Amino acid sequence: MKHAFITGASKGLGKALCELLLHENWHVSGISRHHTIAHKNYIPVVCDLSLPGNLEAVQFEASNCKHLLLINNAGSLGEIGPVGSITDEEIIQTISLNLTAAAVLSNKFLKQTQTLDCPKTIVNISSGAGRNPYDGWATYCSTKAGLDMFSMSVAKELNLNGNSATRIFSIAPGVIDTQMQEEIRSKSVNEFSSVERFKLMHQNNQLSTPESIAQKLVSFLAQRDRFSEVCLDVRNLDF
Hints:
7-stranded parallel beta sheet; alpha/beta
């Protein structure tokens, strides 16, 4: 049995990943506030990941597995606008969801599965915004940059411990046609100076679908040991 734990499972890329892995005979635990998948091998885990106190509800229980997978996909752009104009609460909630939850769940995953003798993979869904600054997105950019560094640090620890069976990656999926993109396009130039570029990408059909990116990520998982780098971009994967 192969078992995947996927956050943000109710829509977008998270839902597409759940459905594709279920189609490929994985067992999937979806971790989300809401659930929209009905399948005999789908296990709904109801959890609001933006509240750190809720993370205790997530347990990584599995046995007789051929592969264990954690995909930290849940994330929020947060409030768009220059620092000094956004609310303190929005900053705290965005950091909690995008970075704190992913770090805590990765820690729990490694701790609770360390005695299981099978390949284990953590995929943190990062963003090009963590590698290039955008005005109006300071909190989002910072959390994705933090996710990259967290992943690289954990990878170094695994390497030092000689744990080649466990891999961690931070992967930017490119620009996907999701609710987040709709939110971006609704903003003014004063809130986000590059908004017209994102509108043009949508008009020119340059956005990827969640399903196409899910397929690329699943293909990546099947050959993960080909890749030595931790921080990757789906658009640069050569398969």
